[in-house]
Amino acid sequence: MITGGQRSGKSRHAEELALRLSPHPVYLATAHLWDDEFRERVRKHQQRRGPQWTNIEEEMYLSRHDLTGHVVVIDCVTLWLTNFFYKTSDVDQTLKTVKEEIDRFTDHDATFIFVTNEIGSGGVSENAIQRKFTDLEGWINQYIAQKANEVILMISGIPIKIK
C-alpha cells in the first residue's frame, strides 16, 4: 500500500515499483471521469506509462478481473471509494461493501499495489459529508494496511517505509 497526500508522488512510485517486479504490470484505474480537467489528468497519467502496461478501467467491482499471477497497481482507493459512497452516502453500508470487494479481489494469487490518499491528515471539515467520507477513507486505509505486507508513506516524492 502506498499512501500520502495529493501530488506526493504516490502513483509514480507505485508504477516504478510495479516495473521492478514485472516487465508487464497491470494498471487498474478506478476513476470516474467527472469533467474535462480530470479527463486530461488521466490522459497525462496514461502517457507516462509505456506500452508494457495492461490498462484496465474499473470504477467499482475490481473482483470482476482475475489478475492471478500479475503485478497490479490499483490507482486509487480514494476515487474507488468515492464511486461507492456517491451512490449511497451511507458509511456503514459502503464500508461493508468495499471490505467484501477487497477480500474477493485480493483472494487471487497476485501482487497488489494499492495507491490511496491520506485525507485525514488535515483539519476537520465543516462539511458533514466530507467528514463521513474522511472517516470512511481512514477505516478502509487501515483495513488495507493491516492486510498489506508493506506500507509506504510518500512525502514530497520521498518514500518512507511504515510497515
UniProtKB/TrEMBL annotation:
<feature type="active site" description="GMP-histidine intermediate">
    <location>
        <position position="45"/>
    </location>
</feature>
<comment type="pathway">
    <text>Cofactor biosynthesis; adenosylcobalamin biosynthesis; adenosylcobalamin from cob(II)yrinate a,c-diamide: step 6/7.</text>
</comment>
<protein>
    <recommendedName>
        <fullName>Adenosylcobinamide kinase</fullName>
        <ecNumber>2.7.1.156</ecNumber>
        <ecNumber>2.7.7.62</ecNumber>
    </recommendedName>
</protein>
<comment type="pathway">
    <text>Cofactor biosynthesis; adenosylcobalamin biosynthesis; adenosylcobalamin from cob(II)yrinate a,c-diamide: step 5/7.</text>
</comment>
<keyword id="KW-0808">Transferase</keyword>
<keyword id="KW-0169">Cobalamin biosynthesis</keyword>
<feature type="binding site">
    <location>
        <begin position="29"/>
        <end position="31"/>
    </location>
    <ligand>
        <name>GTP</name>
    </ligand>
</feature>
<dbReference type="GO" id="GO:0008820">
    <property type="term" value="F:cobinamide phosphate guanylyltransferase activity"/>
</dbReference>
<comment type="function">
    <text>Catalyzes ATP-dependent phosphorylation of adenosylcobinamide and addition of GMP to adenosylcobinamide phosphate.</text>
</comment>
<keyword id="KW-0067">ATP-binding</keyword>
<keyword id="KW-0548">Nucleotidyltransferase</keyword>
<dbReference type="InterPro" id="IPR003203">
    <property type="entry name" value="CobU/CobP"/>
</dbReference>
<feature type="binding site">
    <location>
        <position position="75"/>
    </location>
    <ligand>
        <name>GTP</name>
    </ligand>
</feature>
<keyword id="KW-0342">GTP-binding</keyword>
<dbReference type="InterPro" id="IPR027417">
    <property type="entry name" value="P-loop_NTPase"/>
</dbReference>
<dbReference type="GO" id="GO:0043752">
    <property type="term" value="F:adenosylcobinamide kinase activity"/>
</dbReference>
<feature type="binding site">
    <location>
        <position position="57"/>
    </location>
    <ligand>
        <name>GTP</name>
    </ligand>
</feature>
<keyword id="KW-0418">Kinase</keyword>
<comment type="similarity">
    <text>Belongs to the CobU/CobP family.</text>
</comment>
<dbReference type="GO" id="GO:0005524">
    <property type="term" value="F:ATP binding"/>
</dbReference>
<keyword id="KW-0547">Nucleotide-binding</keyword>
<feature type="binding site">
    <location>
        <begin position="4"/>
        <end position="11"/>
    </location>
    <ligand>
        <name>GTP</name>
    </ligand>
</feature>
<dbReference type="GO" id="GO:0005525">
    <property type="term" value="F:GTP binding"/>
</dbReference>
<dbReference type="GO" id="GO:0009236">
    <property type="term" value="P:cobalamin biosynthetic process"/>
</dbReference>
<dbReference type="Pfam" id="PF02283">
    <property type="entry name" value="CobU"/>
</dbReference>
